Amino acid sequence: MAKAHILVVEDEPDIVDVIRYNLEQEGFTVTAAATGEEAIEKAVDLHPNLILLDLMLPGMDGFDVCRTLKTEHETSSLPVIMITAKSEESDIITGLELGADDYVTKPFRPKVLVARVRNVLRRYSLPPHKESDSKRFANLFIDPVRFVVKVDDASLPLTATEFHILNFLANRPGWVFTRSQIIDAIKGSDYPVTDRSVDVQIVGLRKKLSSAGRMIETVRGIGYRFKDE
After folding, report:
1. 50 close to 121: Cβ distance less than 8 angstroms
2. Distance CA 164, CA 144 (A)
3. Contact 37/9 with Cβ under 8 angstroms?
4. What are the boundaries of each domain within the chain?
5. Has domain 135-226 been given CATH number 1.10.10.10?
6. Which CATH class is domain 5-124?
7. Helix H or strand E segment including 51
8. 3-state secondary structure of 59
9. For residues 180 and 186, what is the distance between their CA atoms, to the nearest angstrom?
10. What are phi and psi of 195, to 5 degrees?
11. Is the Cβ–Cβ distance between 54 and 84 less than 8 Å?
């Protein structure tokens, strides 16, 4: 991860310098682009490991850049973190729905930005798992093919979002995931993309799981993990 190549798309040189300095201090390689058009060209040519994308760019804005990157075959798999002064929930949701993996609002703390970069890169390097495999943990059974969840052999009426959260966490027992990582993994047309909504879904899921609800643990200040008992 330390040798990962980051493309920084930002038109303010001072901000580019701050980002470059902090990422290079952590061992990352950094390339900068000042416009959306330049960003797309460099993304195709260099195929970086991650793109930090400012939304307020001259000409082609960050939303259009993200849309283009995610619809082109050569760049669709590149992770994107938005950097923006726009903190309105609607702007954040728009960016995430276009395919962005995370967002950081200005002004940001460099250490927070580096942590977000590491989290997204780590998520993309997670070992693959078979979504078709059914799983049993004590009295909990999950079948991702038939969308069936049972506790003590009784089927539970989970919503699609609740099911996807449970299946995502259960696929990697013991791994701690932030709310942003959970959002990215299970987001869909029926999902309101906010950190608070993850907490609400977890509360409802635990209630439906009854005695098996204790398998979903809260990791204070970070997020959630599935505990295989």
Report:
1. yes
2. 9
3. no
4. 5-124, 135-226
5. yes
6. alpha beta
7. strand 50-54
8. coil
9. 10
10. -60, -40
11. yes
Two tokens, residue 171: 């696929």
Structure tokens given for 140: 């909990």
CA atoms within 13 Å, Cβ hemisphere of 129: 15
In contact, 166 and 149? CB cutoff 8 Å: yes
Cβ-based burial of 103 (10 A; exposed 0-12, middle 13-18, buried ≥19): buried
Tokens of 179: 């709310």
Give, for all 229 residues of the chain, the pLDDT tens digit. Answer: 558 999 999 999 999 999 999 999 999 999 999 999 999 999 999 999 999 999 989 889 999 999 999 888 888 888 899 988 866 777 777 777 787 888 888 888 999 899 989 988 887 775 555 555 788 999 999 988 778 899 999 988 887 778 889 999 998 888 888 888 888 777 654 445 566 778 888 998 999 999 999 999 998 878 899 987 6
